Amino acid sequence: MTTDLAAWRQEFPILATTTYLISNSLGAMPRGTASKLAEYANVWATRGVRAWEEGWWEMPVSVGNMLAPIIGAPQNSVTMHQNVTIAEAIVLSCFEPGGKRNKIVCEDGNFPSVMYFYAEQKGLRLVTVPVERLAGAIDEETLLVPTSHVLFKTSHLQEIRPVIEQAHKVGAHVVLDCFQSAGVVPVNVTELAVDFAVGGCLKWLCGGPGNGWLYVRPDLMDRLEPRFTGWMAHAAPFTFAPPPLERTTGPMRFLNGTPQIPSLYAAVEGLRIINEVGVANIRRRSRMLTDRLLEGIVEAGLPTITPRHGERRGGTVAVNPPDAEAISRELLARDFLIDYRPDAGIRISPHFYNTVDEVDTILAEVAALAQHRPALRVTRGS
Which range of residues forms the domain containing residue 52? Predict the structure, then answer.
């Protein structure tokens, strides 16, 4: 691990041409990722089908093993998947709603894709509540609690232990979504004793799209039988035997069809860097930069829904001046890469590779554009 975070800027080419403050949406690509993707192409070109027995087959687990230390998970407990929705589907397929235990409970600020998935399941009831009421909504009728560690709009960092404890007390299971925390906020799934955790390398882990992941608590792994399955979960896949499925043991049990090999190559450099820098170091840097952002936003009199207290905040600060969407478009036109979300405003997300100067500059730009929004409407046609 290293505390010289400024030295890492040269490893992210886009930082030389933009003010990149959107790692909550898509982390900057490491320089070495281009070489990794070229390596994939070369292996395919020169090794062909032999690549499967020379590392490709195991990549959903070997890349998961690179991610495991970042979330405090043991080796061989994390598998890689296309996205979080698929990971959630794998988890749900391990359970059969029975009797009154057919309730899915989550906070109303959960990511929509997750809520869409559960809302469409026959025989299940999706119950959403404000995040502060989540633990109290979990009862003996609850099957699963898919919940966000950090909420994507507000950047609220949830106190998750009471949720897990209440779920376990009544026989429910928790699926902790760490997409907006892993890589920027310390999380230890082992200490939390959480049943499942999901996330992706797309954002703070700088691994690109197509790299969702699933953690399964080791004592549950061989007891569960996911019905969302496929040939990679077979104990002897190359026998191509007809059903019923003879399930393998360990993490491969939670795989299904042929994996997304190019995406897995793309994830490696980001995971290597985050492991080397260390999440504790990243968190200190993030706290300093987001504290500075919030102080500037408050001083400018701009509204925000992001928690002021750093212990309750993830890596993002949302600022919501009038005409926030138009202001966000203007910022993008000026190569300040941020994003806009309804009811949240402009999301600004410095990572360990960002600087104090970049934070001060974006603050000045937002304040100036908010002050002169009539001119902005004319020039941007909004």
Answer: 32-276
